[in-house]
Q: What sequence folds into this?
């Protein structure tokens, strides 16, 4: 058997357990049930032995533990679709970490950038679901006083692991959650600095581009950055449902300004940019990124390849919306990698977005974020039966930055 293909997408951030409460059950009050069980074993450790093989996933309406975390979800969804991916993060040396190790091996996710923590546990997040599958996130379980493993990323070790991966990767994906932890934010800053340095070297060498083939020139291009805002106030020590304060927005803003692809929910767009117009959001950022604004069952609004429009949703019977946005992001990155496309100049963005939306819809048809993730052939079969879904392309004058504020002040 030959060597595996190098990862095309590097997924940085959190891998955790979503503890799904029974449908309709409220989140516990702060301080209730948030600590470890006697002996230091977290409440989520029980029953995880079979999760990596996904044999213990519970049916709709039941509570349970699901492996998740947006970057881990995207990495697993990408490899299921057929795009090689790597996960860069930190897990506890515990049952949750072991379950992820098995899952990543099963999905062929590259893990040379995965760190292990003998002191801090893996994170468990409480998730409430309503009768329509919509979620709200509460606090955490398992902290023994030193925080969680994902907060303690070693920046130097991460950069050493990332260096060979960045050479061949097309995308680096991250969210805003671990930006709340100074060590994790520092680790990501180090990797972003490596990407930016590679970009400067590529720019410096562009004057000699005539002496190298287009393929060689493309292979040296540093990865694009994809950012999923994914605002979760509890990661910042704020109560569930809290809007991002101005000081937090100012901290996150430099990450958004580096993005080539940005995904956010409508409420996140309004908080951070005072607009939910994707073209306006793009104009407000220096890199003029591609932007997708999602809004649950409402149409996805998008700005991609210099065009903008909206995509009507697929009609499905949703079981659980956990991981739908991550599957959408994975589907879009898969399409961009397959086309070897620049998000600023991609041709026929509508087809890529329709594929991405189908990935998100199929995940909603099962429980949990990872188990229902489709293969590319399953997505194509789904699309073949859904010819009525429409994509509307909007034609309008360019929107200047003055139409959209940062929302940070």
A:
């Amino acid at each position: 058997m030959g060597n595996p293909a190098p990862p095309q997408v590097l997924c940085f951030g959190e891998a955790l357990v979503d503890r799904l409460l029974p449908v309709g059950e409220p989140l516990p009050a702060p301080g209730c049930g948030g600590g470890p069980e006697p002996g230091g074993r977290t409440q989520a450790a029980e029953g995880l032995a079979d999760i990596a093989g996904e044999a213990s996933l519970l049916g709709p309406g039941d509570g349970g533990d699901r492996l998740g975390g947006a970057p881990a979800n995207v990495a697993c969804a990408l490899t299921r679709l057929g795009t090689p991916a790597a996960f860069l993060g930190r897990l506890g040396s515990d049952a949750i970490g072991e379950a992820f190790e098995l899952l990543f091996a099963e999905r062929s996710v590259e893990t040379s950038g995965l760190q292990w923590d003998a002191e801090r546990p893996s994170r468990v997040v409480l998730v409430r679901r309503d009768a329509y599958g919509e979620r709200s996130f509460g606090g955490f379980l398992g902290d023994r006083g030193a925080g969680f493993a994902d907060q303690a990323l070693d920046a130097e070790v991460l950069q050493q692991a990332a260096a060979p991966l960045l050479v061949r990767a097309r995308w680096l994906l991250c969210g805003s959650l671990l930006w709340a932890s100074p060590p994790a934010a520092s680790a990501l800053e180090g990797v972003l600095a490596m990407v930016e340095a590679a970009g400067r070297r590529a720019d410096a060498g562009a004057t000699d581009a005539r002496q190298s083939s287009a393929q060689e020139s493309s292979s040296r291009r540093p990865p694009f950055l994809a950012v999923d805002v994914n605002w979760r106030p509890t990661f910042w020590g704020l109560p569930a449902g809290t809007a991002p304060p101005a000081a937090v927005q100012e901290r996150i803003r430099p990450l958004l300004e580096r993005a080539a692809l940005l995904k956010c929910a409508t409420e996140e767009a309004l908080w951070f940019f005072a607009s939910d117009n994707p073209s306006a959001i793009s104009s407000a950022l220096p890199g003029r990124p591609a932007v997708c604004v999602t809004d649950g069952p409402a149409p996805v609004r998008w700005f991609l390849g210099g065009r903008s429009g909206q995509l009507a949703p697929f009609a499905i019977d949703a079981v659980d919306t956990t991981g739908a946005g991550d599957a959408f992001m994975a589907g879009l990155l898969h399409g961009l990698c397959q086309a070897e496309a620049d998000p600023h100049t991609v041709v026929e963005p509508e087809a890529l977005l329709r594929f991405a939306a189908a990935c998100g819809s199929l995940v909603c048809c099962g429980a949990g974020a990872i188990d229902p993730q489709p293969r590319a052939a399953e997505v194509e079969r789904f699309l073949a039966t859904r010819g009525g879904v429409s994509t509307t392309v909007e034609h309008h004058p360019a929107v200047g930055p003055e139409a959209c504020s940062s929302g940070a002040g």
